[in-house]
Amino acid sequence: MRPWLVMIMASAALLTASPAHADEAAPADGADEAAVPDGWQVSSDINLTLTQNAYTDNWDGDETGALSWVFNSNTLAESQLTDVVNNKNTLKLSFGQTHKQDEDSKKWDRPSTNTDLIDFGSVFRFAYGWAVDPFASGRVESRFLDTSDRELTRTLNPTTFTESVGIARVLIKQEKRDWTMRLGGAVRQHLNRNALPEGEAKREDIFTNDAGVEFISAFRTPLADGAITLTSDLTVYQALYYSESDVLDDGGAPGADDWKSTDIDWENTFSAGITKHIVVNLYVQVLYDKEIDPDVRLKETLSLGFTFKLL
Q: Which of 50, 157, 233, 268 is the most buried (most CB within 10 A)?
C-alpha cells in the first residue's frame, strides 16, 4: 500500500468515525458533573518473569544451564487540566537478560540482553467540541544498555526524540475500553553517543533528524468477559525530509532512498490475570523499517510472571 494512501485512509477514519462511542462515554442526562474524575489518575503495573534451569558438571547430555529474566513496567498518568486541556503521560520500561552456561566448561558466560526499552510519551489534547481535537505531543525512546559496539557498552543510547502536532479523535472513552487516533506532522531527532563510524579512528556523537507525517492508533479493550486485556498501539510514519539525504545521494550507495519508505510499528499485548499477583502476557510486535531490513520483522514473547499494581 502506498504511503499517501495510508495517510488518506487515516484522515478519513478520524473525520468519519461514528460518534456513537463518544456518546457512550458521556454522562447520562442529569448526572452529577462531579462524577468526572478530577486531578491526576495514575496507574502503574509492574511484572517480573523468571526462567531458570541448571545441571551439574557430570550431567550426561548436551543440555546447559540458563537463567532468563525480564522486568516490565507500564505507568499511566492522565489529568483533565482544564475544561479544554487534557494531558496523558505514558512510561514503558522493559529490561531483561539471559545467562547461559558454556556447553563444555559449564562456566557461566556473560549475560546477553533479550529485552531493552525506555519509552516516555506525553500528549496534550485540546477539546473545543469540534469533530477533531488539536493536539501537541512529545516522545523519548532509548535503551538502558547499548551493546551494539563490542568495544564499548553505552548507557541510555541511542535516543530518539519526537515532537508532533496535529488532530486527534477520541472514538471510545470508557472505564476499561478506550480508542484514540492521532494524525499530524512530526519531527524526529536521533542521537547516537560515542559512536565509531566505519573507517574512523575517533569516536563522536552522531546527530541526525527527519520530518514527516505520523499516524497513531491507541486501543485498549477487555476480552473474554474481562479475563483478558488487549492493548494495541499502531504507529505509521512517513518521512518527507532527512538531514543525511544529500550525503546518501552523493555516495550512490545501495538503499540511498530507503529513508523514504513508510515505517510501521504495531504492538499488541494480551494480558490475563491468573491470580491477583500472577499474570500471563503475550506480546507481539510487528516492525517494518526498510533502513534496517527490507522485510517485516516480528517479535513474540509469551511470559508467566509476577505482577504488582502500585497505584
A: 157
**How many Å apart are CA 265 and CA 241, to the nearest integer?**
19
Residue type at 180? T
Average pLDDT estimate for 118-144:
97
Residue with cell 533479550: 114
pLDDT in tens, 28-79: 344 344 344 568 999 888 888 888 887 777 777 777 788 899 998 889 999 9
Residue 156 cell numbers, joined: 541510555
The residues spanned by each domain of the chain are 3-24+40-309
Task: Render pLDDT for 271-309 as a digit per residue (tens, 0 to 9).
Answer: 998 888 888 889 999 999 999 999 999 999 888 777 776
Cell 478506550 belongs to residue: 178
299 exposure class (CB count in 10 Å sphere: 0-12, 13-18, 19+):
exposed
Is pTM beyond 0.90? Reply is no
Question: Cα separation of 239 and 189, whole Å?
Answer: 12
**DSSP string of the chain, one letter each residue:** --HHHHHHHHHHHHHHS-THHHHHHSPPTT--GGGS--SEEEEEEEEEEEEEE---TT--SS---EEEEEEEEEEEEEEE-SSSEEEEEEEEEEEEEEEEB-TTT-PBPPPEEEEEEEEEEEEEEE--SSSSEEEEEEEEEE-SEE-SSTT--EES-SEEEEEEEEEEEEEEE-SS-EEEEEEEEEEEEEEEEEE--TT-SS-EEEEEEEEEEEEEEEEEEEETTTTEEEEEEEEEEEEEEETTHHHHHHHT-TTTTGGGSPEEEEEEEEEEESSSSEEEEEEEEEEE-TTT-SS-EEEEEEEEEEEEE--
What the block records as the C-alpha cell of 202 is 575517533
